[in-house]
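Troubleshooting: if your tokenizer reports a length mismatch, compare against these two reference records.
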Amino acid sequence: MLVAIARASARHAKKLVLCALALAIAAAIYGSGVARALAPGGFEVRGGEAQWVAAEVERRFGHGTPDLVALVWMEGVAADAPPMHAVLTAVESALRAEPAIATVDGPLGPAGAALLSKDGNTAMLALSLRGTASAKEQAFDRVVEVMNDAAGTARVEVGGPLAVAVVGQHTAEHDLVRAELVAFPLVGLLLLAFFGGRIATLLPLAVGGLAIAFATAVLRGLAELATISVFALNIVTLLGLGLAIDYSLFMVQRFREELVFGSVPEAVMRTVTSAGKTMLFSGVAVAVSLLALLVFPIALLHSIAIAGALIVVLTIVAALVVLPAMLAWLGHRVEWPRRPSTHLGRTDQLERGWGRLATWVMRRPGLVMFGTAAMLLLVGAPALRLQTALSDARIFPSDFEVRKVHERLEDPSGFDARGTVQYLVVLEGEQPIWQLEQLGHVYDTHSALLAVPGVKHVDDLVTALGQDVRFMVAGGLLGYAPSLPAGLEQLVDDDATLLRVTAQAPADAPAR
């Protein structure tokens, strides 16, 4: 196979290079919007309990955990003053008129003062949106615009999981471009120092650019068929550029050495069958290792596995097919502006620095092995005290609005209601929730949740009914379904009821 690739690259060098260039341009155009097609996050466990609960809440009650948190305030005006009351009324009315909004919880609702800051100057709104993650992202800008328009002179700052996802997506797209603009010139300077020739310097960068362009196009296509995390872009850029440089160094340097001993076609043949074989086995090993991440039921790891294996395969193809064609087309011009080298014999190479280093290592294998292991253990020692947590708004710089909102919500002196976790209690069987036995289960769960350290409030059927719970009990005793008070349709769905738990704890607190 490698012999056939080498012959085809030497015979049709110009056609292969021009064809690859045209395809890369088309791929770059198609893949330019890949960040917007990819999904945010991906930290949930597929098929896990949390994902099932979220889906059930959405299906049964039409909403889930709050997607957005908005802080509203006016300079010098208390949050419970008439001007702010008018602003909050206008904002909530405008939001409820939006088709994308499922629920709006604010100080004017049942939560009341719990959604006012302790200093009395800021009001908090918790919003749940309808639809899939993609639909919510598309509605984000519209929702923010509606709030700002309705607030008038009042200030509105937006945070929450959806804001983190959208801002993260935009930031990833921006950072990807910036990383490429910074990385390519720096790598180019290093390659220029290594090769000495400008043409040889550009070849690894060209291979990296081709692989990344093709990978972004394929990722955009895959995003139409499956959920791919936006973090896959970082893997594509990181591995694409790194592997392209690594593999191209093998190929280009070997080609320059082989030019001394034969013609250009012969040099291409020996390069592909020697350095190309090493590169091929290395790439296959890396790709297979990355695919092992598919074993874990986490969407983010699946995206990393797919993106990583994809960029490795495409880099191998670019370095094994397109790069030899470039070398065959350039021939001795690969050394430009240097004169073709005539002193790169195999024996002379042993006298160079890397050859002497390799010889020294082979003569002292035990010393090198234990010394290297000790160094790696020393460098990795800090990981013994590593504490992990899910990413949230703290991943952004302190001047980002979404980070400011998060810090205000996490500040104990800011709000009483800091974090809201939703639980869905599904009663097995066909028994309606209003039957006496089921109401007893709901009440017991309500009491157990209130006993958990950090839980401040449980908003559910028990708290919503209050004294009216006796009518529900009477209905259970008499065997008929009583009419539910207005608003309870968001908490009750035949054989299920929703409990919203307000807990005061940092975002990275352990689960209880």
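Reference record two:
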Amino acid sequence: MSRTTKYLLIAGTLLLVIAGLFYWYSATYSLSDIPNPQKTQLVEQPQKEASFVVPAKPTCVPKGQVLEGNQRLFVSTNLLIAITADSSTYDANLGESHRILTIYNTDNCTPTFSQVLPVDISADYPYYLMPLDTTKEDLIAIIGSSRFYVYDIINKRLSPALKPTFKENAT
């Protein structure tokens, strides 16, 4: 199996996993969970649901460019998590590189954690935030093209890069 075929299989598998997570997410949360900016600034999820809310307009504004959906507000811990791009990650040939993970304290809008994630396959392949469904709902995934990270919101720790491995067909 050629290297290109392996990369395509990995990318396809990751896309299927991401699509499955998005399908699960859309099936779990109803349209009534979507905030109405004319009625309220923030819409909190019910207690049994995830502890994050989708901000209609965030109270803190992350520095740099943010792709739609690449910031999450965690009300219970007063944190805003964002993946951004700025001049430090700009690629002359490919443009913006969305790979700066920054955690803000929403009490004073100061960054409490910031890390530039490595280029994953190509500089124009962004990382994305995705909440993970756990018992305590305190984890968020940072998903790249071929690897992902998990940020522990309570303990304020980022996992090392996790890269799925696939077994070769034994034919």
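Descriptive notes for reference record two:
- Residues 36-43, 45-51 have pLDDT under 50 and may be disordered.
- The two ends are 11 Å apart (CA to CA).
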